[in-house]
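Worked example

This section walks through a single chain of length 410. The input is the sequence exactly as stored; nothing has been trimmed or padded.
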Amino acid sequence: MAEGAGTAVSMQEQTAPKRIASIDIFRGLTMAVMIFVNELDGVRGLPWWTHHAKASWNVMTYVDMVYPFFLFIIGLAIPLAIRARLKKDPSMPALWRHVLLRSASLIVLGLILANASKMDTASSGLSGSLWGLLGLIGGVLYWNVYPESQRFRGVFKSLRIVGLLMLVFVYAIFRRITPAGRVGWIDGSYPEILGLIGYTYLSVAILYIPTRRWLWAPLVWFVGLVSLCAVATLHWVNFPNTLPLYYWPFSNGSWACMTMAGVVTSAIFLGDHRWKTAKQRMQLAVVFAVLNLIAGWLLTPLGISKIRATPTWCLYSVGAAVLCFTLLYWICDVQKRTGWAFMVRSAGSNTLLTYLLPDFYGFIIAVSGALYFETHFAYGFPGVVKAVIFTLFMLAVSTLLTRWRLRMQL
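Given that input, the structure is written out below as tokens.
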């Protein structure tokens, strides 16, 4: 992708990057599909391809590509975010503090979502749903982006402190019963999707930031991570599958490779290389996508499975994500047609809060006991209609909260 193999080119420390609308719209569309498939997961009597493929199957469904698309979008945004942060403050220690705090914040929120169902009411005095609701409220208060206001500066600071105290409180009182029958604390074995994203973001940052000046470096890292996924799937090396994420955030390389693919795609569309026009960049992106699809096909003997995190699942997902993003780039940034995406704009720009809205809804419903819609319309076509309505409702709430300037940012 670079002018010469040995040329050092910085994507981040040039002039200010172009804003591409397709990133926010792609993120918003992915969030909408994620909400829909999560709601659809509880609906029975649907074709097999409307759910995640089972671990024993060598097949993948569209549902299995939603999480990879989200990881890919994170990679798309990483170069832009790092460039903007370095322009604001060129301190590398400050940048790494931000990376670590952002990763830790995602893990903190993820562990709340993952442990709410494990809460032991007798030991803690709170139901899991109420505990989770308090934790999310604390997270919103602490990580909300408050407007600049001298008049209410003290109020906003107090709200942030209250949010932090609520987070400390819910972690302090948490109790669960371990498989051995003992009283235990937070279970960190699975930090939910948000926590996995936090570890993946950290792992990609570890690779990308020191080598960000070389435009070709993300492609090298991408190939290396796919290779790690392949050898781990073959069990030629076993430590990636056995080490806890807080020791080895790369896992078996699958999640990180899909995020790094987003970094590569960002370099294709925003990097300083010989392919300057939109048409040339789109053609290069299509080549990258096709190469991923071919590589995925070649690695099919290793299996196709999201649950087993095989390289073919990664490469097929990356190929599809690059093609979808390229199409959106042509529609939104070349043709300048963005009005059709009004429903997902807030989900794309206020993503973390939008992600948490279904969990807020679930905790509130459980605490209130109003379970009618949870126990009805859970079979066949009526369940699909309910999932569509629920998704549109969540998007509408996200839009409303964004207009009210309620926005989370880590």
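What to look for: Confidence is low (pLDDT under 50) at residues 1-17.
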